[in-house]
Amino acid sequence: MIGTISSICQYLPKNRISIKKFCLEKNWDYKKLIDKTGIKFIYKSKHDESALSMAITAAKKLKVKKNDINALIYVTQSPEFHLPTNACVIQDKLNLNKNIIAFDVNQGCSGFIYGLFLAQQIIKNNSKGKVLLLCSDTYTKNININNKSCSTIFSDAASASLISKYKKKNSNFLFYTDGSGAKDLILNYSGFNYKKDLSPELFMNGRKVLSFTMNVVPDLIKKLIKKEKIEINKIKYFIFHQASKIVIDNLTRILNIPTKKVYRNYSKYGNTVSSTIPICLNELIKKKLVKKGDKILLCGFGVGLSAGTTIMEV
Amino acid sequence: MNQKDLFKIIKNCLKTNETINMKSSTRNVEEWDSLGQLAILTTLDKKLKNKTAKLTKLADAETVKAIHDILKKAKLIV
Fold first, then answer.
1. Pairing with A99, which of A136, A140, A305, B36 sits 20 to 30 Å away (CA)?
2. Positive/negative CA dihedral, A80, A83, A86, A89
3. Least Cα separation, residue B52 to chain A (angstroms)
4. SS3 at position B31
5. B2 and chain A: CB distance < 8 Å anywhere?
6. Cα distance from B42 to chain A (closest Cα, Å)?
7. Which chain B residue lies closest to A213 (C-alpha atoms)?
8. Predicted ipTM?
């Protein structure tokens, strides 16, 4: 690819929730639940902690010269403001140069792939600088704790990735959008259509989202592999959006990928929306499970409904 | 796969002691919740060698009869 990830940092709120403990409080069968979702812990942001503040904290952890950054992409579905652009607020808080492009991307579980694609286009256009790609979400703030399918899965987190110029050939990205499934994962009345007496509450039709994933994602990945003319055994790792165990088990089975090639960390962090893929990448790098030149297939999917995939080289 | 196999798969997925028949549904089988439905979708796809992933209506099927009819239409059950 023209741009590659040169550094990643993450931020998780201090409040870690044990799903077992939470289910016991609610009188829910935790064994059955964890057996399906695989999620043992989630993170919840505090009242005074926003996606924006979490993104800033993650970005501050990156060791980068501020003058090197010439673009800022902020992927979130938990914006602090509808206007101004949250990325502009972040530019100021991080004291980044003023002669940069900064914008928000309203995308969720496929958001990191969207951000990576846009970063690559920016680098293609101006190869001198680096792109700061921030992903941050606080879905838990809009989840009713009695909603079992959302309250035991979604988790808050932020990630900061630095995308730099890379001399290898341009990598393919494939995307898929099906807005007819918008209602299957939605935060109703969360925009200018808000109702005074209704607080926005996250709704997910898990069956429909799983069905979309099983139906669309394998074909998209197969198409990318064919387009890249690469064999599955040449791909070191597959990083799927960490939706839940049942989703990743199904993708692994349908694509017939050796399980050891599929990286998983949902049990520790839950579904952190747009940050699941960068958090996995960060772990792979920290654990030295990948070396320079290794190829990793990334795939995000979910809210929209949408999906995006690419193959990156470490 | 036949009707008897389908009943057995659904019973195992839901881990229920109830007898599963054509009249069973999310309304009369307590264990048939959203997680149970996910287990049914996954197991059917596995047993039928990835042929049900394209049957998007299966995600909405909340009765054994509805599941049976969708599979029959797709010629995946006898």
1. A136
2. negative
3. 9
4. coil
5. no
6. 7
7. B53
8. 0.75
Shortest Cα–Cα distance, A211 to chain B (Å): 6
**Out of A36, A215, A253, closest to residue B39 by CB:** A36
pLDDT tens for chain A, 314 residues: list them: 556 787 899 999 999 999 999 999 999 989 988 988 999 999 999 999 999 999 999 999 998 888 889 999 999 999 999 899 999 999 999 999 999 999 999 999 999 999 999 999 999 887 677 999 999 999 999 999 999 889 999 999 999 999 988 766 667 999 999 999 999 999 988 887 777 777 888 999 888 888 889 889 999 999 999 999 998 889 999 999 999 999 999 899 999 999 999 999 999 999 999 999 999 999 999 999 998 889 999 999 999 999 999 999 88
Option in A210, A212, A254 nearest B38 (CB)? A210
Q: pTM here?
A: 0.89
CA distance B29 to chain A (A): 16
Among B38, B53, B59, the residue with its CB nearest the CB of A36 is B38
A223/B53 Cα distance (integer angstroms): 17
